[in-house]
Amino acid sequence: MSTSGEALAPESTINVNKWFEDGKFKSFHWIQFLLGIATFTFDGYDLFVYAAAVPLLLKSFHINLAQAGVIGSYAPIGAAIGALFFGPVADKIGRRRTILICLTIICVGMGLCGISSGPGFFSIFRVLTGFGVGGCMPNMVALATEYTPLRARATTVSMMLSGIQVGGIAMALLGLWLFPIFGWRAVFIAGFVPIILLPVYAKYLPESPVHLLKRGRMEQLRKYVRLSRPSETVPDAAVLQVNMGSGKAPLATIFQEGRGFSTVMFWIAYFMNLYTIFAFTIWLPKLIMSQGFTLARGLSGLLSLSIASIIGSYVAGIIADRVLGNRPTLFLFYGISFLSIVTTGYMSSFTGLMICVSLAGAGFNGAQNLLNAYIAPYYPPTMRSTAVGFAYGVGRFGAIFGPAIIGIVMSMHFTYRETLLAIGIPGLVPALAIWAVREKHNYARILAAEKAVVG
Questions:
Q1: Looking at residues 37-48, what average pLDDT do you find?
Q2: What pLDDT score was predicted for residue 67?
Q3: pLDDT by residue (tens digit) across 420-453?
Q4: How far are the Cα atoms of 73, 112, 113 from residue 107, in angstroms, in the given order?
Q5: CA-CA distance, 23 to 334, in Å (whole number)?
Q6: Alpha carbon distance 316, 365 (integer Å)
Q7: Which residues contact 237 (CB under 8 A, 6 or more apart)?
Q8: Dihedrals φ, ψ of 189, to 5°?
Q9: 284 contacts 51 by C-beta, under 8 angstroms
Q10: pLDDT at 423 (0 to 100)
Q11: Which residues contact 43 (CB under 8 A, 6 or more apart)?
Q12: What is the pLDDT of residues 299-335, one digit of tens each?
């Protein structure tokens, strides 16, 4: 491999994966990063928009807390289906095309929610929106993992996923402005506007190296190789190689070669943490209002949660990359999440409440974003979309059950503190699941060991 500024020999062979891993963060990566942030902003907006609108929807649709909890589960149901469906599809038609399709579905679904005449149509369009969200997230993570330099991978993916919290901030600010004037419909209709960004995605979003190789689009791959390390000269005659993994059927392979047990552990970690995230986030404004505060204070809680989650995602990535590594950092942030949620129930002042809410968001969202960065390189490239997609899809069932269960708990008149315990205690399970993951079958670790031997 050449050093910066040197030209490769005309007949050189380039391992594309190593080329991207050994590079430095350039404008090519910044464009992907910004597109990733934008993508996850849509996801976050989708999550927080329902949380913010729940107090108004209860009156507008004449529904009770249990019914609102069930409706809150419809978008995660769509996301689970979308993740399970679009993971294998992306491995066939390409991640870029899949992401473009899913973004269109998200925008259309959001707009339709805003013009729904009743809870029935609203629920259908929430499923549709979630279907697009479920297809977007795992494919964007897998794509970023393939192109981002190794030294910045965990930080980059974690910060990219913090776009979810950017969506939360946008939602809270729009809600504070639009709710008093236009009501809840305006914030859903606003979710249709990002469709104008599709041409930008079509122009700048790269395709997976594996898919380009399979389709024989070597010039396109060569273009990305050059863009990623622009100071180096890559001859037209240079041979490009891409790590293809085992070449077996993707779904079957994530359970083979010793990865089956860890795959299940990843699913459990995803499931329980998403249960906590969705249960806490969707019901946060209503929980705050149950303590005598206004809707505006409830939206302020979402704003604090979102800002703290961005900081938590960044800190988690830095700690994982430079200090502790992925697994110990995950243990730390799961613990912060649990303690903060439980302590929230004992805070009587709004300031103390916001501190606990902020720490909880930093904990469970920081852990979730880092978990995405940990899972993707655990698997070979050919099955990466499928592996992340199925983890995300199965995990989304936690997001399905979380809002519904807590809605039922609240309708049964459990106390404020008991409700928070029902949210927080399950958040300890992901730490146990990650502890049980078998690192010896980690593809990235195996590849690194092989390179060390060759070196």
A1: 84
A2: 87
A3: 999 988 888 999 999 888 877 777 677 766 666 6
A4: 19, 9, 10
A5: 32
A6: 10
A7: 10, 11
A8: -60, -35
A9: yes
A10: 92
A11: 133, 136, 137, 163, 164, 167
A12: 888 888 888 988 887 888 889 888 888 888 999 999 9
Q: Quick one: DSSP state of residue 257?
A: T
For residue 218, the tally of other CB atoms under 10 A from its CB is 14
Q: Which amino acid is at 299?
A: L
Q: Which two tokens stand for residue 178?
A: 């639009």
Work out the angle between the directed axes of helices 350-375 and 384-411 (0-180°, nearest 10): 150
Taking residues 385-405, what's their average pLDDT?
81
Structure tokens at 360: 């909880």
Q: Domain limits of the chain?
A: 13-454
Burial class (CB in 10 A: 0-12, 13-18, 19+), 394: buried
Alpha-carbon span 166 to 310, nearest angstrom: 8
Q: Which of 46-60, 207-221, 301-315, 354-368 shows the highest mean pLDDT?
A: 354-368
Confidence band, pLDDT 50/70/90 cuts, at residue 107: very high
Least Cα distance to 356 among 290, 273, 270, 280 occurs for 280
Angle between helices 153-161 and 27-60 (to 10 degrees): 30
Q: What is the dihedral of CA 429, 432, 436, 441, to 10 degrees?
A: 70
Q: Which of 109, 72, 105, 110 lies closest to 86, judged by CA?
A: 105
Least confident of 51-55, 133-137, 386-390: 386-390
Secondary structure (3-state) at 239: strand
Token pair for 27: 């404008």
* Single-letter amino acid, residue 11: E
- Which superfamily does CATH assign the domain made up of 13-454 to? MFS general substrate transporter like domains (1.20.1250.20)
Which uninterrupted H or E stretch holds 352? Answer: helix 350-375
Give yes or no for a contact between 119 and 331, defined as CB atoms under 8 angstroms apart.
no
Higher pLDDT, 80 or 251: 80
Query: Which letter, b or e, does each residue of 91-125 get, where b requires 16 or more Cβ atoms within 10 Å of its Cβ?
Result: beebbbbbbebbbebbbbbbbbbbebeebeebbbb
